[in-house]
Specification:
- This protein is 41% helix and 17% strand.
- It is an alpha/beta fold.
- The chain has a 7-stranded mixed β-sheet with strand order 4-3-2-5-6-9-7.
- It binds S-adenosylmethionine (SAM).
- The site of S-adenosylmethionine has 22 residues, from strand 1, helix 3 and strand 3.
Length: 286
């Protein structure tokens, strides 16, 4: 079945009374070489978690390459179509659910116990960052995470902490692994075509994290607070994010770390964020 053929896609959508739902970011891939390259990027995995299989174009390629595929789709209307398009893919389990609500540790417990697990997804644009933050904050030992996202977001993911343009998501990525921009994908390779171009980023997760903060929850809270107001200094952003701690304390912490008093969040490295979050953690514990 050629799910990159627009006529086939239109026929399936008509048979199953489907329309591409904007609210779920449904832009289906139609370029076979892009689909194959994304599927290849999980090399070494035993199980692949796909977020948002859509009509199953990437799912079929994953099924041909990996032992087990778990595909999590929010739109229950797509399930009958997926049953049809994945009929011959016996190693695929489709789960109807919202990735933001799903207990991924429970869903993948057996897979993590028995082998390597990677994520592969053409992500819905409306919710890219929350999904990535959930995967990165989950502490689940994924081998790699490959995502197709808007080109601008991909650039931010791969920017590296401490670089201009970096954001909370950049720091979260750099904390858990190394991101590599694989290739860009023009908007005409989708049906329907989105307004912007896309790019594929592969994050290879560290087995042993090079930087280990005292408390991971405080680390992520520190990172998020640091980018709350991008135009403000780090001290101002942090005092908004952690309103229970007096502002002078943040000025002290910044000085203690040997950083400039007017520094902004985008200039800090992962190690500096970890050191800062350790000071905040100690202060909260007082
Ligand atoms: N993988 C297909 C492809 O490449 O053609 C479809 C990708 S489309 C950009 C995004 C898919 O994610 C859609 O099928 C959409 O219904 C699904 N989706 C959107 N939000 C979701 C969520 N919160 N949890 C799971 N799936 C979601």
């Amino acid at each position: 079945m050629d799910l990159c053929n627009i006529k086939t896609v239109r026929d399936i959508m008509s048979i199953f009374h489907l329309t591409a739902k904007k609210e779920y970011g449904q832009n289906f891939l139609t370029d076979p070489s892009v689909v194959a390259d994304i599927a290849d990027s999980a090399y070494g995995a035993d199980t692949v978690l796909e977020i948002g299989p859509g009509l199953g174009v990437l799912t079929r390629e994953l099924s041909a390459r990996y032992k087990t595929v778990k595909a999590l789709e929010i739109d229950e209307k797509l399930l009958p179509a997926l049953k049809y398009t994945l009929n011959d893919c016996k190693n695929v389990t489709v789960i109807n659910g919202d990735v933001m609500k799903e207990d991924l540790a429970a869903l993948l417990a057996d897979d993590f116990a028995n082998g390597k697990v990677s994520v592969c997804a053409n992500l819905p644009y409306y919710i890219t960052s929350p999904i990535l933050m959930k995967l990165l904050e989950s502490e689940l030992p994924f081998d790699s995470i490959t995502v197709m996202v808007q080109k601008e977001v991909a650039e931010r993911l791969a920017a590296g902490a401490g670089e201009k343009d970096c954001g909370a998501i950049t720091v979260a990525v750099a904390y858990r692994g190394e991101a590599e921009m694989l290739f860009t994908v023009p908007s005409d390779r989708f049906f329907p075509a989105p307004k912007v171009d896309s790019a594929v980023v592969r994050i290879k997760l560290y087995r042993e994290k090079p930087v280990v903060p005292r408390d991971e929850e405080t680390f992520f809270a520190t990172v998020r607070a640091s980018f709350l107001q991008r135009r403000k200094t780090l001290v101002n952003s942090l005092s908004t994010g952690f309103s229970q701690i007096p502002k002078e304390k943040f000025a002290e912490f910044i000085e203690q770390l040997g950083l400039r008093p007017d520094i902004r969040g985008e200039r800090l490295t992962v190690a500096e964020f970890a050191a800062l979050s350790d000071l905040i953690y100690a202060e909260k514990a007082k």
